[in-house]
């Protein structure tokens, strides 16, 4: 278990203490500032460790040179009724955009309202209350309250605090203090949301198979009902003194099969998707801001789905930018086959991909990510 968050008396700042394995295989620890507490302190200068961009880079939602990204919106209620038009839209969105909005999804509005309320309640606590409410664990899953994906002392840091929980399979976190005790209804609200969201993602997997003219269980059968995983990551992005220099999350593709994202801070948008050429992620003109309406959920295609679909769906590069005058929160659910399961590309696709073990691939991606190209997925491609 990682050490408790620490406050240094001389600086007055709070820190997460995170563990990582360095390039020589040694276990190291690093102190990472708690960005919510930096904001609460009222800092006006961005600490050097958070500088990721060059002055003048165009990153903000209103500065992005190519504007906003118009995503397909898939009505799952129409898909359930057999709409060929909606299925065609779904296949195009998965292949061409790698993400799509869904409505008619079946997640109760009361469930969404409650899960949003408990997330706001948790991040409304003081730092000491949050640390006493939930622990932090430096395993590969980086569960608990704190930071994730810190790999070195000199790594530029994302402007984010997060809460990470393995919600499925049931009992996966028994004995670990990863579910907040405050608010008191946090676990019940989140587990209800996860259960309903799993049903949604199972339907999406079936619908994607049908949209590609495959057997409807072609993808879903690789998700063992008892062993498949759902990892929850609650993201908190406080206002940032220099949004032109910092990122909320570094450019990446998701290692998951599918990611389901709900935005809590309605009216502010920070997610951007890359539409430039040749994976030139430094291009100022390649990033587009993703805007979606209240009540809609966003599905992002991950690397594992790109593999099992044999390239029919493609995982997109995306990142999160910061805001100068607004906080943002979101909930990401990462849906994966059981980590020990060997997943196989369905036949009839590009023929590019080979079998991989789900958990091994995810560890491979985390080990080399982020990169300037989709190098991780080369691991799953045939020689």
UniProtKB/TrEMBL annotation:
- The UniProt record lists the Fe2OG dioxygenase domain at 228-337
Q: Which UniProt keywords apply?
A: Iron, Metal-binding, Oxidoreductase
* Superkingdom of this protein's organism: Eukaryota
Q: Which Gene3D superfamilies match?
A: B-lactam Antibiotic, Isopenicillin N Synthase, Chain
Keyword Nucleus tagged: no
Is Metal-binding found in the keyword set?
yes
Q: Name one GO molecular function term.
A: oxidoreductase activity
Show the Pfam families listed in the entry: 2OG-FeII_Oxy, DIOX_N
**Similarity field:** Belongs to the iron/ascorbate-dependent oxidoreductase family.
Q: What is this protein called?
A: Fe2OG dioxygenase domain-containing protein
Originating organism: Trapa natans
| Species lineage | Eukaryota, Viridiplantae, Streptophyta, Embryophyta, Tracheophyta
């Amino acid at each position: 278990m990682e050490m408790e968050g620490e406050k240094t008396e001389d600086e007055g700042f709070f820190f997460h203490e995170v563990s990582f394995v360095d390039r020589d295989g040694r276990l190291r620890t690093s102190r990472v500032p708690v960005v919510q507490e930096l904001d609460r302190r009222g800092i006006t200068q961005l600490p050097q460790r958070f500088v990721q961009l060059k002055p003048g880079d165009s990153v903000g939602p209103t500065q992005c040179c190519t504007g906003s990204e118009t995503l397909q919106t898939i009505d799952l209620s129409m898909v359930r009724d057999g709409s060929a038009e909606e299925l065609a839209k779904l296949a195009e969105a998965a292949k061409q955009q790698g993400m799509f909005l869904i409505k008619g999804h079946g997640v109760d509005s009361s469930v969404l309202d409650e899960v949003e309320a408990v997330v706001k309640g948790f991040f409304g606590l003081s730092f000491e209350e949050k640390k006493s409410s939930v622990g932090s664990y430096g395993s590969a899953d980086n569960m608990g309250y704190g930071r994730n994906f810190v790999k070195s002392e000199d790594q530029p840091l994302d402007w984010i605090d997060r809460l990470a929980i393995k919600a499925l399979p049931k009992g996966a976190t028994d004995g670990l203090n990863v579910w907040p005790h405050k608010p008191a209804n946090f676990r019940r609200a989140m587990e209800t949301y996860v259960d309903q969201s799993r049903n949604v993602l199972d339907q999406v997997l079936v619908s994607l198979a049908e949209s590609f003219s495959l057997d409807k269980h072609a993808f879903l059968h690789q998700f063992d009902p008892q062993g498949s995983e759902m990892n929850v990551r609650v993201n908190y992005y406080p206002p940032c003194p220099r949004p032109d220099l910092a990122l909320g999350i570094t450019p990446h593709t998701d290692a998951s099969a599918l990611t389901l994202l709900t935005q809590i801070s309605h009216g502010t948008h920070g997610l951007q998707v890359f539409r430039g050429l040749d994976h030139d992620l430094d291009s100022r003109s390649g990033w587009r801001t993703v805007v979606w309406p209240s009540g809609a959920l966003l599905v992002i295609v991950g690397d594992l789905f790109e593999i099992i679909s044999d390239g029919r769906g493609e995982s997109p590069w995306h990142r999160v930018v910061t805001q100068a005058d607004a906080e943002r929160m979101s909930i990401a659910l990462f849906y994966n086959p059981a980590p020990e399961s060997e997943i196989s590309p369905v036949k009839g696709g590009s023929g590019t991909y080979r079998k991989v073990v789900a958990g091994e691939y995810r560890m491979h991606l985390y080990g080399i990510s982020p990169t300037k190209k989709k190098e991780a997925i080369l691991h799953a491609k045939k020689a």
